[in-house]
Specification:
Structural class: alpha+beta
Number of helices: 6
Number of strands: 3
Strand content: 5-15%
Order of helices and strands: HHEEEHHHH
Helix content: 40-55%
């Protein structure tokens, strides 16, 4: 984002045009209007789950540009947790697609990782404890990192399932 902002500033200066700031999280919400699955657009009010890089937020969108944040990550966002777990497994960046690819060959319920904040009374998210549980599991079973063994496939599938469950159960 920082590189993009500086590039936009430079273009605005060179072309003598105003620079109009845009909230990139708002852009994630409106992206659903760009390619609707049918000829119908989202109707208000709606619930938006933003899962993007360092952000995990649950937002009530009452109308255009009328938002109420219902919950957000307290520590690592989902994307950050995916990247860190992928690194533990010796996978590439970004971690989400890499873990998903590996998880397709694993058993999602084979490892009882914690389900982050599943019983919380608010709508916040936390993925740091789940990430730590994966670390200690890998350390405890002594997996050789970076090779797609069945055990690593199960780690990826179980991790992915718990992240998914925590987000779906919030909504």
């Amino acid at each position: 984002l920082w590189v993009g902002v500086n590039f936009a500033r430079a273009l605005a200066t060179v072309w003598k045009k105003p620079l109009i700031p845009v909230n990139h999280l708002e852009g994630h919400i409106y992206a659903s209007w760009l390619m609707p699955q049918s000829d119908k657009y989202p109707q208000f009010p709606l619930l938006a789950l933003i899962v993007s890089g360092g952000h995990t937020e649950l937002v009530l969108v009452k109308n255009h540009r009328q938002y109420k944040k219902l919950g957000e990550t307290r520590d690592d966002a989902a994307g950050e947790a995916f990247d860190k777990v992928a690194r533990m497994l010796g996978l590439g960046y970004p971690g989400g697609p890499e873990i998903s690819r590996l998880a397709q060959k694993g058993e999602a319920w084979s490892i009882a990782f914690p389900r982050p904040m599943i019983d919380s009374s608010d709508f916040d998210f936390s993925f740091s404890g789940l990430k730590t549980a994966v670390f200690y599991h890998l350390k405890g079973v002594g997996l050789p990192l970076g090779s797609p063994t069945p055990k690593e496939q199960d780690v990826a599938a179980s991790f992915e399932q718990q992240v998914f469950d925590s987000r779906v159960n919030e909504c």
